Amino acid sequence: MSVTVTERNEISQLSLPKKNGGHEIFYPESDGKPMAETDVHRKLMSSLIESLEAFFKDKTDIYITGNIMFYYEEGNPRKSIAPDLMVVKGVHKNPRRVFKLWEEKVPDVVFEISSRGTWRDDLQKKYFLYQEFGVKEYYLFDPEYDYLRDGLVAYHLINGEFEDIKLEEGRVFSPALGLEVVDTGKTLRLFSPEIREFLPTMEELTEQAAKAETLESEIEKLKAELAKLKRQI
Q1: Are strands 109-113 and 137-141 parallel, antiparallel or unpaired?
Q2: Got the DSSP string for 70-116?
Q3: What digits encode the pLDDT tens for the residues 164-177?
Q4: What DSSP state is assigned to residue 168?
């Protein structure tokens, strides 16, 4: 990718002087844009990330992140995007400050939660970028059901090009994740064919943990009462 004169001038403003002379390119951790346009978009992004992190918690070579600055041209920090959610297999899961494509591996899966201000970029600019990078699976979801032709749109990379994957009752299987991506008609969920259940959200996991704690407490009380009765016999 070529760099224009304007971009060179902008890049020079993002350079840091090195101790031994020359300049080091600075890759900012934020583009100054909000993470999501609405609470609905933000909560869905967070929920999907948390569900995947919990599902793959025992895997040390799967990196799951969202809204991180993704730089795809070395030396040119203007060439950046910020995927809503991406999954990269075969790399360490340690937190990053930014994601530099030339130092990493191409994401296997990308999700974009489309909105009034992003859906055109999601279908055009990002579509072609992800295809060029070699992203295996690209999913777009419109939680407001206003901007995409369907709530969920799925593309899989076949012979170097994205192919539109037909949904079956709002579902599509993700080979990279081993999960079904499901448009419930109200939101986007991830379903495990192996256990025949939706991946729990963090809210659901917290609720389950609270119920388990309450149950354990009740069992301990019953044990104490039983022990007391035995002593009285």
Answers
A1: parallel
A2: EE-STT-TTSEE--SEEEEESS-----SSEEGGGS---SEEEEE--T
A3: 999 999 999 999 99
A4: B
Return the pLDDT at 208: 67
What per-residue string of b and e applies to 5-30 under the rule 16 or more CB within 10 Å gives b?
eebeeebeeeeeeeeeeeeeeebeee
Q: In terms of domains, do 215 and 172 share one?
A: no
Alpha-carbon span 140 to 118, nearest angstrom: 11
225 secondary structure, DSSP code: H
Other beta carbons less than 10 A from residue 175's beta carbon:
11
User: DSSP state, 103?
Assistant: G
Report pTM: 0.81
168 part of a folded domain = yes
User: Amino acid letter at 71?
Assistant: Y
In a domain, 110, yes or no: yes
Query: Which residue range forms the structural domain that includes residue 144?
Result: 29-199
Q: Are residues 105 and 162 in the same domain?
A: yes
Separation CA 191–CA 52 (nearest Å): 11
CA dist 215 → 4, 150, 211, 229 (Å)? 65, 43, 6, 21
